[in-house]
Design brief:
The protein has helices spanning 3-15, 21-28, 69-80, 115-123, 151-175, 197-211, 241-250, 269-277, 303-314, 334-353, 357-365, 369-378, 384-395, 403-413; strands at 33-36, 87-92, 128-131, 179-183, 188-189, 220-225, 236-237, 255-259, 283-287, 321-325. By secondary structure, the chain is of the alpha/beta class. It has a single domain (31-355), classed as Alpha-Beta Barrel (TIM Barrel), CATH 3.20.20.150. The strands form three sheets. It has a five-stranded parallel sheet with strand order 4-6-8-9-10. Strand 9, helix 9 (303-314) and strand 10 (321-325) form a beta-alpha-beta unit. The longest helix is centred in the middle third of the chain and has 25 residues, at 151-175. The radius of gyration is 22 Å and the shape is globular. The chain binds ligand L2XQQQDX and manganese (II) ion (MN). Manganese (II) ion is lined by residues 225, 259, 286, 326. GO terms for molecular function: L-rhamnose isomerase activity; manganese ion binding. It catalyses: L-rhamnopyranose = L-rhamnulose.
Length: 418
Amino acid sequence: MVNKERYESAKAIYGELGIDTDAAIARLKDIPVSLHCWQGDDVTGFDHDGPLTGGIQTTGNYPGKARTPDELMEDMDKAISLMPGKKKLNLHACYAIFEDGEYADRDKLEPKHFAKWVEFAKARNMGIDFNPTFFSHDKVKDGLTLSSPDEGTRKFWIEHGKACIRISNYFAKETGVPCVMNIWTGDGYKDIPADRMGPRMRYKDSIEQILSEPYDKNQVKPCVESKVFGIGVESYTVGSAEFTLSFAATHEGCLPLMDNGHYHPTEVVSDKIPALLCYYPEIALHITRPVRWDSDHVLLFDDETREMAKEIVRCEALGRVYMALDYFDASINRVSAWVIGFRSWQKALLNALCTPNALFKKLQDENRLTELMVLQEEIKTYPFGDIWAEYCRQCGVQEDKKWFEEIVSYEKEVLVKR
Ligand SMILES: C[C@H](O)[C@H](O)[C@@H](O)C(=O)CO
Ligand SMILES: [Mn+2]
């Protein structure tokens, strides 16, 4: 059977459950997902030569890492050509592009240092999300930035945050798409601290100072990302879940950002999404795959990934959740890592849109839980692959099995020559 016939047959099967697969495909094409630039170069950036710090780590030494803005853009273009769906570009401040020997430290960054990225995004019809970079820098003092007891250090990082607000405002104006600006720091202590509240009060004040910088409240969406622990920061994290949720709840316009690698291993973000949606008009996500801890493995189409997407869809919250990918693997082809992760999240969203959510809710409300279990199990073996193949076809990208051939050629022709 050719693909089109397979799609028609799958469409009829889903149709019996009241699912309109054409509508699901059309809807997904319009939903932006933010693609993180830092998968392409192991979270290095262009403004320093030092190691990756902040309690995060990339492992592996696969050949072909992007070393310059041009290489990173070239790799991203290759990846994008193999991903269906609408993309946004997610940048970190350390990816500033300096020209003609110019350099600006993080507290002095200006929109002009990101002009090339704006050009790149506009040419591809993408909005831009942004992240101040509070790590991999010699002004991280004793592992602390915004919560440092040293006023000079704290001031430097507050100025960095303010510069990033101005840059986010510029991104939104230039692209016409709201810019999600996420504040994450690795601030914390390896061992048991003597004062847990002091750093948090300083952190609160620092973020408040950053957010006092004028910006268009409809166009820039500041977020605070929580974390349970990092490498070398095992005992105490300043920006804990309780801290960031409370901060966002009490500061209008500030969104909570949940990274699903940032919780205890038995906690699931799929359950936290509807809880937060009861209270916050908008929330943000970093979507990753934690293996035993915040390992930032490449996202796959696994159970929890599917469950997170299902929650967003069945809460009718596609317009209220800003979705960004956040993982980094240096042990495999990096372009492939981008593609697998992005396609996995697209699959998860499409799968969620092809789930009979109204029917399942009805069964739950009528306490027909056996029937609910049976149907939830059976739909797992429905011909979803045929719907996915049709989505890829309509988006003009290679279907599964085929896209990897292009990666193999790209590796031979471009990556290994670096
Ligand atoms: C590079 C990102 O900002 C970083 O991954 C952060 O979002 C995070 O999740 C740290 O663990
Ligand atoms: Mn994250």
